[in-house]
Here is the input.
Amino acid sequence: GDSVTQMEGPVTLSEEAFLTINCTYTATGYPSLFWYVQYPGEGLQLLLKATKADDKGSNKGFEATYRKETTSFHLEKGSVQVSDSAVYFCALKEGAQKLVFGQGTRLTINP
Amino acid sequence: KAGVTQTPRYLIKTRGQQVTLSCSPISGHRSVSWYQQTPGQGLQFLFEYFSETQRNKGNFPGRFSGRQFSNSRSEMNVSTLELGDSALYLCASSQGQVFDEQFFGPGTRLTVL
Here is the structure.
C-alpha cells in the first residue's frame, strides 16, 4: 500500500540556519503530496502542497518540489525562525479523502 | 468562517467503557475524516464520511464506528475501550473532491485508564 517515510527527528537548529526535512513516498498511482505542521496542543495545519510532478509548493518561506523520478518531496527553508519550532508531517493522498502520513519530524529552533 | 471544532477537547475514560466524540466541519464542507494520533503508530486514518455515507475506511477494528448527520456534523464512537485507544483523535473537513484541502480541528485527547 501507499506509504510515506520522512527524516527521523528530532532536529535542532540555530535561528537563521538552513532547513531540510527529507520525505520519500511509495504509491501505486499519482498522489498529491502535502506538508502539514503541528504546533503544541493544536491540530494540523496545511503548510504547502503539490498535486503533480515537478510542482513546487511554497508558503511562509518553506518550499517543496514534487520529484516523481526520486519519489521525494523534501521540505526546505532558507532561514528558520524560533517560531518554526513544531512537528512537521509529510503526507500523500491518492484519490480518496484519506491522507497517509509520515511519522513526523520534531523541529526545534534555538535563538 | 469558523474552523473545524471538536468536542470535548479532553476525555478520561476507563477500560471497557464507550465514548463518543463530536466534530463540526467548516460550513459548506460535506466530507469529514477522522484520524488517530499516537506516539507509537503516528497518524492513522480511521474513516471518512461524505453526505452521511461512509466513503472510506481504515484498518481499525469494528469497535470504532462513526456517523454523519444531515448538517455534516460527525460523531465517532469507540466501544469497549482499551488502554491502547488512548490517543489524540483528529477530524478534518473538506468539500470532498479529490484535490480539496482537508482542514483539521484541534483534536480530542482521550485517555483510557
Chain A touches chain B through 22 residues (CB under 8 Å). Chain A has no helices and twelve strands. The first strand of chain A starts at residue 3 and ends at 6. Residues 11 and 90 of chain A are 15 Å apart (CA to CA).
